[in-house]
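SEVERITY: medium
COMPONENT: batch folding queue
REPORTER: lab tech (J.R.)

DESCRIPTION
The queue accepted two submissions in a row. Attaching both inputs and their returned structure tokens so the on-call engineer can compare them side by side.

ATTACHMENT 1
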Amino acid sequence: MYLTPQRILLAGATGLTGEHLLDRLLNERTVERVLAPSRRPLAEHPHLENPVGELADLLPQLQGPLDTAFCCLGTTIKQAGSQEAFRAVDYELVLAFAERAKALGVRHLLVISALGANARSLVFYNRVKGELEQALQSLGFEQLTIARPSLLLGNRSQPRPGEGLAAPLMRLIPGNYRAIEACTLARALWRLALEEGQGVRIVESTELRQLGR
């Protein structure tokens, strides 16, 4: 069975995947409101509400009711500057966003995690993602969808040279490790948002590519 999300909360609207997702949401005739806090102003749209500032400061000011929330937040340890700063964004800020979404009545939360997320991993990045997934599941959303994409491809505002070098190879690797276009991920997230369900669903990269075709 499919639902039509009407009132949507989006974090990360200026990011690689968030930009594609925002464009899709604003072009869906059934979406009446998109609440998208961001650091820099977004282009005006009659169905867009865009508080500007630091997300952590804006969260208490956000108002509902809302039906569905998408979290496209994410950084790298290199961009953040340290493991502690990375965790502050990819764990603490995402969790705070989810808690606020729950308080505003959101029934379905969709979050971008990462391929290899595992709370017991020896790799710091994967461990933080896994710990986040566990924390999100404990919040008790009626429906929680966790997307685990592989390397994301697309035009970033801040290029990542390492990803650029790896991209050609990652396009050829089969299965979950094959790179995925950000626009494909955005389409997959929207399709997943339309699916009515209960409990937790974890969607690996291969399925995300299929859903986003």
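ATTACHMENT 2
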Amino acid sequence: RRGDVKAVNDLATSAPLSLLKENKDGWIPLHDAAICGQTECLKIILRGSVDKRTLQEQTALLLAVSCEHLSCVQFLLETSADPDISSKNKETPLYKACELDNMDMVSLILSHGATVNQRCGQGWTALHEAVSKNNTEICEILIRAGAVIKTPSLHEASKNGHKESVAVLLTKNADANKPTNSGLLPLHIAAQFGHHEVVIMNEAITRILETALIVSLLVSVTSRARLRHSCVSPLHLAAEHNRHTVAAVLLKTGADVNTTLADSHSKQYADRRATALYFAIANGSTKAAEVLLNAGADLSLDPVSPLLMAVRQGCVSTVSLLLEREANVHARIPSYATTFPSVVALCMNNLLLLKCLLDNGCDALSCFTCTYGCAPHPTSGGSHIRTFCEWISTSVMCKWAGPIIDLLLEHVGHVQLCSKLTELLDSREEWLAVKRKSSSPRPLLHLCRFRIRTQIGRHRLKSLTSLPLPDRLIRYLSLAD
């Protein structure tokens, strides 16, 4: 280890067997000399044991490569060290050199006849590792040496956003239309994994642009028929993972914004989601949703309205975006029948989101419709269609009843609370003011505003600012004053 050539030479003469004695890990001095880069010691020790392995099946050559001792590697290879012997985890010296991004080491090992397509424990070849490092020069060397371009190489380059490696592999006739076992093409992989956020802004922008270029490269060589027969489109994957830049490139190059998921794949989701837009919203990808809506995404193709999913996610910006694009604020949940708007039930205690929906025409009046009125409500049974008073009285919701009812009262005229709602408001002293608001005559200012908003209609309420009205009146009708 110290490189004490004289001491090693004396031992080789006086006690040669000591140079073959193993330690507890199966190492002999040969291995120590290799990993420490002591070439002169290697020359003395190396007498018929060049390929001796440790308990982890590491040869001196592999150890020297691992520590990038080029002179040791050259000597061992010239002394007939076998470059194809792998360690216990099936790593060869060539694979290790590619992992270390050491082009000189790769060239040297190949020049001594290393097998270029040998696989490691995870099934990768040296080319796969070079692609994962985005080292195009090593890729070129390996391909010239006979490396077979298997589909996983192109998938790996696409996954990591390595534009240069993708370009090299495509010029070497890598097959962009051969799927992996999961059925995904390289274009799918690029759309899903091609960009990962990094801290430094300039690097993030660079990675986004490189991903967009990779998608552009793959689109031109990917079969449209293959894409049509895949269970999920690249656009779905880009939307699901908020790759809004990738989604924009896919749409620009001809992807159908309203393509739907294969039925076999859609069945895997309880809501039977179908469109890329729904995937974007379900995964909180507001930017991707906006890109899709700008491209003409249809809001009526999913069994469950995308608006309901956005409300469930609690994202006010996405909900506002969908309402601007004429989403139906009174969409129903197929499996949950109510006499009041489903969006109200999905808001839970999110008052900001509830206000956004009510301001955009959500029917607040239906929340105060109850067949029992002031009469006692039955404790069980009754209709399978749930009323607002039943929903707000549940153990999950009752603790927020006061603020929710208070907000609803701001969007209706005079209403009569049923006995269940009255009982709820009586349960807390701080909610008595809400009860007094409901039983007192509503201010004329409020009643006028409510009537005008009703006459204007829900659709025109969304474009109040474009009406030829004074700013003060617009603020009044928008509930800003």
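NOTES FROM REPORTER
The radius of gyration is 35 Å.
No errors were logged for either attachment.
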